[in-house]
Design a protein that fits this description.
heterodimer, A: 139 residues, alpha/beta, two-stranded parallel ribbon, 8 strands, 32% helix, elongated, B: 137 residues, Nucleotidyltransferase, domain 5
Chain lengths: 139, 137
């Protein structure tokens, strides 16, 4: 029995690697299509703190930010005033069906006074957006 | 001279080496995976009603939060953020129908966003619906 096992020939199984390049390039294309470039990453915004913030679970339709100088950004592009934000959000929400598609991310510097940020909040609300106000967890 | 030169020139077939394509591709994937940061920001959700302006408040019983600079007032009584949370918890807003979950939010000029955010977060955490009170012009 032992002898017979020893006499068994070893067969080398070649791994097919011809399509590896295609698979790899398909993966690259997938990543490039699915990834999103963070446009407002380098913005000068010091976030407010709260115990109630939690990791965002929904997909946002737009990103609105107000930096420390009071400049308003809509999806990473600087806009003149809150009215532009309202029209922008309104345009994005025209074909929405469910509430899940109404979330708008709002990032604002913690030190800004009411006169600067409230018109933007009101603009998002009047356009029909649900505000997802960005903050940091209290340590 | 020209004729001889063109006739003598050998036709060489140039092949592009494709053997290392998969290596290049996988290196690119690794680069994307390392360089990509998955950002998941922390937020509070606030669904502000976008209805028509009302000339007067709906009811005298509607709770109101006033922000006067850095001070917080709940139904005209000065409170801290923790005390505000307790008061909102006592209201048990989650058990009410949406129309009865309204909390009015009024703020004076110069109120910093930090305070506004904390109040907004507290109201949202207790399932309240924020109605912003506008100044009379």
């Amino acid at each position: 029995m032992k002898k017979r096992l020893q006499s068994k020939k070893r067969r080398t199984v070649p791994v097919p690697i011809a399509s590896m390049g295609d698979i790899a390039f398909l993966l690259i294309i997938f990543f490039m299509v699915c990834s999103e470039v963070a446009k407002d990453k380098n913005m000068d915004v010091e976030l407010p703190v709260s115990d109630y913030v939690k990791k965002i679970q929904v997909t946002v339709v737009a990103r609105v930010a107000v930096d420390e100088n009071g400049e308003i950004y809509f999806d990473g592009t600087r806009v003149d005033n809150a009215k532009d934000v309202e029209w922008g959000v309104r345009a994005l929400l025209t074909n929405t069906i469910s509430d899940d598609q109404r979330h708008v991310q709002f990032k604002c510097d913690r030190a800004l006074p009411k006169e600067t940020f409230e018109p933007v909040i009101k603009a998002i609300a009047s356009a029909g957006g649900i505000i997802e106000a960005v903050g940091e967890k209290q340590q | 001279m020209r004729k001889r030169y063109s006739k003598e020139k050998k036709h060489r077939s140039g092949e592009i080496p494709t053997g290392s394509f998969s290596d290049i591709a996988f290196l690119l994937i690794i680069y994307f995976l390392v360089a990509t940061t998955l950002v998941k920001v922390k937020t509070i959700a606030a669904d502000l009603p976008s209805g028509e302006k009302a000339s007067q408040t709906q009811s005298d019983k509607t709770p109101i939060v006033n922000l006067r600079g850095t001070e917080i007032f709940f139904n005209d009584k000065k409170v801290s953020v923790d005390l505000l949370n307790e008061r909102l918890q006592a209201l048990k807003l989650g058990e009410n129908e949406p129309a009865k979950r309204v909390i009015m939010l009024e703020s004076t000029r110069g109120t910093p966003y930090e305070n506004y955010f904390q109040v907004l977060a507290a109201i949202s955490a207790h399932q309240g619906v924020v109605a912003i009170v506008e100044d009379d012009k």
